[in-house]
């Protein structure tokens, strides 16, 4: 199985194999790699050098889910503003906690599925109620659904865009979130896995890590098309822009 740069970085960090300088070099390599790829795409190098360019392009399209008409890549981000972390989480809560209950439940269903590797097989129609809250009790964002049988399932994220996870932050949020749901997934979401965040994840095994890239692509994958709209797509596209400047 081919590992992404982030996956390889996580495994090395878990083994304690990276010095501070090595970690810094790896992060710079990741930035250089993305910049180089963007350059060859913009300059049309791949189009002229690859005889089978249409098939390669088709593979990329399938990989990112771009065949889906409502994909958030099909809209422009808000480039004129710079959102802070609380504005991102409050924006997500606003778009999930809509008045229309079926839409609210489907968006919450997609959110929780996007946070975990284990696909939640319960259909969104089996959700009795859903709620999303941002900046409640110091937790960046929490989404909890109540199923028809009364059981509750939820997910919380600690959102990062360059800021460090401070000492004691994750254990405190774990304690605050203990009674949110019967089953809860806790995730730190950031543009890339840094040495500092990897160290914090090793100390807090009940938390998982996702890049914004993975979270947003998963969310689009699980979101029912009839529960999406252009305003919400533009906001998700803006998060991607804010995280990766593309």
Q: Please, could you describe this protein's structure?
A:
The protein has 246 residues and is of the alpha/beta class. It has a domain of 160 residues. It contains 10 helices and 5 strands. It has a 5-stranded mixed sheet. Strand 1 and strand 2 form a beta hairpin. The protein is globular and about 50 Å long. The N terminus is likely disordered.
Q: Mind sketching the topology for me?
A:
Layout: H1 5-14, H2 20-42, H3 45-49, H4 53-63, H5 85-96, H6 101-115, E1 127-136, E2 139-147, E3 152-159, H7 169-177, E4 183-190, H8 195-203, E5 207-211, H9 212-222, H10 230-244
Parallel strand pairs: 3-4, 4-5
Antiparallel strand pairs: 1-2, 2-3
**Major sheet, described briefly?**
5 strands, mixed
Class computed from helices, strands and strand pairing: alpha/beta
* Overall geometry: globular
Strand proportion, as a percent range, falls in 15-25%
Distance between the termini: 28 Å
User: Which sequence of strands runs across the widest sheet?
Assistant: 1-2-3-4-5
Helix residue percentage:
40-55%
Mean pLDDT: 81
Rg computed from alpha carbons, rounded to a whole number of angstroms: 19 Å
- Low confidence ranges: 1-7
Order of helices and strands: HHHHHHEEEHEHEHH
Please report the number of helical segments: 10
Q: Give me the count of strands.
A: 5
């Amino acid at each position: 199985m081919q590992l992404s740069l982030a996956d390889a970085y996580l495994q090395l960090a878990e083994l304690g194999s990276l010095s501070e300088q090595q970690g810094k070099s790896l992060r710079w390599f990741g930035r250089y790699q993305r910049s180089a790829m963007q350059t060859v795409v913009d300059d049309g190098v791949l189009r002229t050098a690859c005889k089978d360019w249409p098939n390669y392009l088709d593979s990329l399209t399938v990989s990112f889910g771009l065949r889906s008409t409502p994909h958030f890549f099909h809209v422009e981000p808000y480039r004129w503003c710079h959102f802070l972390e609380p504005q991102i989480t409050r924006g997500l809560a606003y778009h999930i906690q809509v008045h229309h209950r079926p839409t609210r439940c489907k968006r919450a269903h997609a959110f929780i599925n996007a946070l975990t590797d284990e696909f939640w097989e319960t259909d969104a129609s089996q959700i009795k109620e859903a709620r999303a809250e941002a900046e409640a009790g110091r937790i960046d964002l929490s989404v909890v659904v109540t199923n028809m049988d009364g059981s509750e399932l939820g997910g919380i994220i600690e959102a990062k865009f360059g800021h460090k996870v401070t000492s004691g932050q994750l254990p405190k949020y774990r304690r605050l979130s203990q009674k949110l749901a019967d089953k809860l997934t806790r995730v730190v979401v950031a543009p890339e896995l840094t040495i500092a965040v990897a160290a914090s994840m090793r100390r807090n095994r009940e938390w998982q890590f996702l890049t914004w890239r993975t979270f947003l692509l998963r969310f689009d994958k699980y979101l029912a098309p009839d529960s999406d709209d252009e305003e919400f797509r533009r906001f998700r596209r803006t998060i991607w822009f804010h995280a990766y400047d593309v």
